[in-house]
Amino acid sequence: MPLGACAFSGTGLPINREFVRRELGFGALTSNSIDSVSDRDFILEVLAAISILSVHLSRIAEDLILWSTKEFNFIDIDFSFCTGSSIMPHKKNPDILELIRGSFGKIHGDLSSVMILMKGLPSSYNRDLQLDKPPLFDAVDTIKEVLEIFMALFQNIVIEKEAIATKLKDESLFSVDIVEYLIKKGLSYRKAHDIVGRMIKGCLDKKMAISGLSLAELKKYSQLLDAGVYKILNATSSVKLKRSFGSTNPRLVKQQLAVWQKRLK
Description:
Elements: H1 17-24, H2 33-38, H3 41-67, E1 75-76, E2 83-84, E3 92-93, H4 95-119, H5 133-154, E4 158-159, H6 161-167, H7 175-184, H8 189-206, H9 215-221, H10 235-241, H11 250-264
Antiparallel strand pairs: 1-4, 2-3
Helix pairs in contact: 3-4, 3-5, 4-5, 7-8
């Protein structure tokens, strides 16, 4: 609680700051009168946290925009969050996400404005500090609105599973799994990487899938490659092979979901 610090130096009058603190329900008293009136770290910390959060939300918005395009077609965003095109009748624009992505520039500007406001001030209170409130209120109001929109948007997203499954047919996505397959058989990472790199290049040159290679053709790249390679050339096997904590293994993802569901409750 800063009350009682007065303009900057405290007071010689017989006030009881502790009594006021208890009556108003504050957890503690500020311990330095000059710091009490001139410090705005608490505002900068809130704005910094909101700015960092906005970076993550902006990246999520960008992912969703990309995934909703015809080129990706991974998701379908509900029409209530989209608009039509001014010229193309067939187009569905994820305008809400684009506006969210754009609005975060203002939040970063709010943080910058308060930091620049503070950097040139001498110690103690200065009238400039009255200007700290508009950026703070603007950032808090903006992030609250965006979070509410995101919650509603995610409840109405349709996952285009067939389109995603089609993209996952590209077997070069599982090249790292083949590298690790060879490492588990005793090869160094460098040699395994080189072998798989040559194999992928050969398949690309011949415009064929890895699964199209015969066992004899696999053996030409390495005698350690065998029929087991064919079993890992799919997304289901690939994610199940991941065993490190925090990885994409479905079992580990379920564990993380359970942890966050518990924390959020």
